[in-house]
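Is it possible to get an amino acid sequence alongside its tokenized fold?
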Amino acid sequence: MPETPAARYWLVKSEPDVYSFDQLWRAPGRKTGWDGVRNYQARNFMSQQMRVGDGVLYYHSSGQPPGVAGLAEVASAPYPDPTQFDPRDEHCDPASTRAAPRWFQVDLRATRRLPRFLPLAELRAESRLAGMELLRRGSRLSVQPVRPEHWRVVLELAGISDRN
């Protein structure tokens, strides 16, 4: 029997006034394309490592306070981000072509509202989250990996005990 790959977890950042977790929750099928990522490392995480079913912490980056707002999952394989080809879109990349796209996206599906919002200050105060990418000084990636042990701690802090 083939071995099942280990679960992977991610954190994605969005400004709540641009696209909030509530908007994702209300979207048709609770799903949206995660477009507009224009950082090569974040792009590589999406295009090379994300898999359908991976867990996602949805983080409001500029809220007052910033923090984890909900849970989602990767709902598609990576595919070219259509905004790179649209000259009317702020994310247009004139150097990108349909034959050789530079930027990719995945679809995300909201899976669960948190029993309570988890502010960044509370995450920083939790010693079991030492080493979490989000909490590293200068960490600005909009898509970043989350270690399984950190995923479990975040869910515990949010009051969720029935999901690994």
